[in-house]
Amino acid sequence: MTREQLEREYTPRLLVDDLQPYLDRYTELSEAARAELTVERNVAYGATPEEVLDYFPAASRASPVHVFIHGGYWRLLGKDESSFAAPAFVRAGASFVALNYALAPKVRLDEIVRQCRSAIAWLYRNASGFGGDPGRIFVSGTSAGGHLVAMLLATEWARDFGVPDDVIKGGCAVSGVFDLEPILQCAVNETLHMDLAEARRNSPLVRKNSSALVVAWGERETAEWKRQNLEYAGRWRSVNGACEAVEIPGRNHFDVIVDLGNPDSRLGRLALAQMGLA
Asked: Domains of the chain, with CATH numbers?
């Protein structure tokens, strides 16, 4: 592809008239979730100010834990816009975590990945203190968060973090990007400052893994974004067998993730079923 073609394919906001209403919806639904539910806010999982999370406990102890990782091309948003799905999970009997991480250009992508990994290791060691079951941690994320889900599933947990290799029991990677080399040619890299080595290091490998996986994307995505999701799901199947790969009709890159908070939607049902809660 030419640089111009890559820019079109890897700029999802070009497919919507206005991005702001979607961002406003994340914020409004997240504020409503925090008003409705019990939540432990700004719980530190690391040493820097950005390494915090919001924890929404389930009513019953020893509940499964669902961790949501926001998108924003590793440059935008945070946990405060990431609680919109919490009511659906808490009502179904799961604890919900809205995860924060530092953003580019303040940090490099290597550091963003490290922070998300350390958050999972921290939750494994601390979730029981909030009523969660460390043996039932699940993750989801959208766009950049979908990429980070895949990076978590590629982690050598016992070697690098001293927690079980199967610490993550399932994941939902929604509208993720999994091969980062094309992004080197796009304007977003003016913020990310990735070089080829970093792009390759953060293009998630598919390792032998017992985790359940859902890969989902919107019908109204670019052709290249759809290709990346289909190919990642195919690589997962070739190594691990089952993988639910789903195109959500009528959804675009920015509204597909809102379905995570709707237990009657296909994505919502798949995420809950993965946890044994459908």
From this structure: 3-274 (3.40.50.1820)
